[in-house]
């Protein structure tokens, strides 16, 4: 089991371009969570998805950001028309069931987005 | 906001010493977790303590939880240089969704 896989590890975009971040959850996990980490900060919740459904998007900006978790394939976090303030590390976590087990969430290594 | 807050923000100790980090939160919780993050890497889950538990051990880690004070502490005994990392507490609050609320972390440096 390869764990939670995120790609790319590093992504550089110019202002106004689109950024697409991918997250493949652990095998057998159907719940995915996206978090954003600004420099020297903790992680901030963005969105929680189950296969083909958005369960909680309360942490996601209303504009330019969207997320999906299709029946087949990875979860995608999409940022349109990126701005410098979008520069951050974006982490994905997965779990087999809703709620938190004794083992916590399994996080990927993140995608570091730099907007120039 | 019911964000957890870690204290201290930074801690520098010598190898072999113990490191204690504290976390405070604002609302009632179901669970509190501690994670470690090495520089430029993802988060690694260390330990979870439930709201009805007061203390938990895992190897060199000891976590306490005081729900009356809304605080938790993480103790790393006999620290090693490899323990150098940032440590975050995360809470999921009662009545909320599965999302975790993280503090800003404690940056621990263990000097060889």
Structure description:
The complex is a heterodimer of chains A (116) and B (112). Chain A has no helices and 11 strands. Chain A is mainly beta. In chain A, strands 2, 4, 5, 6, 9, 10 and 11 form a 7-stranded mixed beta sheet that branches. Chain A has a 4-stranded antiparallel beta sheet with strand order 1-3-8-7, with no helix packed on it. Chain A is globular and about 40 Å long. The model of chain A has no long low-confidence stretch (mean pLDDT 91). Chain B has no helices and 11 strands. Chain B starts with a strand and ends with a strand. In chain B, a hairpin with a 2-residue loop joins β6 (55-58) and β7 (61-66). In chain B, strands 2, 4, 5, 9, 10 and 11 form a 6-stranded mixed beta sheet that branches. Chain B has a 5-stranded antiparallel beta sheet with strand order 1-3-8-7-6, with no helix packed on it. With 112 residues, chain B is mainly β. Classes of the chains: A mainly beta (116), B mainly beta (112).
